[in-house]
Amino acid sequence: MLGVSKSASEDEIKKAYRKLAHQYHPDKAGGDEKKFKEINEAYQVLGNKEKRAQYDQFGKVFEGGDMPGGGANPFEGFDFGGGGFSWNAGMGGDMNDIFESIFEQFGGGGRRQSASSHGSDVEIIQHLTLEEAFRGVTRDLEFKTNVACAVCGGIGYQKEQGQKDCAKCGGRGELRVERRTFFGRFSQVQQCPDCFGVGKTPNAPCASCKGTGRVFGTRTVRVTIAPGIDDGQVIKVHGGGETGERGGGNGDLYIVVKIKPHAHFTRVKSDLYLVKKITLAEMLLERPVKLKDIGGEEFSITIPAGFSLKEKMRVPHRGMPKFGSAARGDLYLLFDLEVPKHLSAKAKKLLGELNDELGS
Description:
Largest sheet: 4 strands, mixed
Shape: elongated
Number of helices: 7
CATH class of the largest domain: Mainly Beta
Number of domains: 3
Structural class: alpha+beta
Radius of gyration: 37 Å
Helix content: 10-25%
Low-confidence stretches: 64-101, 103-113
Strand order of the largest sheet: 10-11-15-14
Strand content: 25-35%
CATH architecture of the largest domain: Ribbon
Mean pLDDT: 80
CATH topology of the largest domain: Chaperone, DNAj Protein, Chain A
């Protein structure tokens, strides 16, 4: 029931129990009272060394005098009289740990909860070109989610018709219920399911949103993406997600930025790499080589004498902006020497003379 192995430690059993108890607690969304009871009973066996030994040996736990050899009453120290429970000092000092998950929100008073329900977070992917990531952009992003009902303004009912005291809870917003558990009978205060804890119900629920205050539609959020945004970076827009129920707060919007591959530039963080074709004359005669950076600005460089084409040339501050800063990364040039496919007789003669000159 707890999903642990036979050799599980006490800590592993306790962690598994707490997780399942929270998951199936009858007062939580998706709770299951039957499973909750079974989980509690399983923990009482596995969380107790004597009971666990009985179960491992006999496949069951024996109560009182039914135990082989007339073992001790496993409930010794408990008093279930009068619908409550108590334990004596001999029970040990960790009872708060055992009951922590079981009795959450139990007791003589309950905290009134809001009728509204907070909206969920939304995640979308936004594709940018490298140029857009360089300049930064402002866009209106559209996506499908629950939005505030335009008919009732998001409150879930016709405002002019007003509200009345909830018939189920008498306007208190909460109900007291009694539950019989493994440990006895307990009184529990829980939120009224009809008025969602506010003690009021509308005289005329909104027909458009059926009282939820929201409908499924298209939401538009304007977002500004700063220059230098990197691939995979996430932008959070507080309150930009799903609209909550009955006036509840909005969830957040998370925008995952994806940078499209560029035809010429390769990005490594804030640096850029570019392969540039050059001629033999540009290389040997130190003629200016004209280029454009990612921002479209023209500039030129010259290849110094003795430069090896196996190396890359660094051009400072011609890369991408560093996100959140005015500084820029660098541009690294890799050169590709263009070799003519056909040489005239004159060109061959000149190259021969050049070879002789360089070889002397």
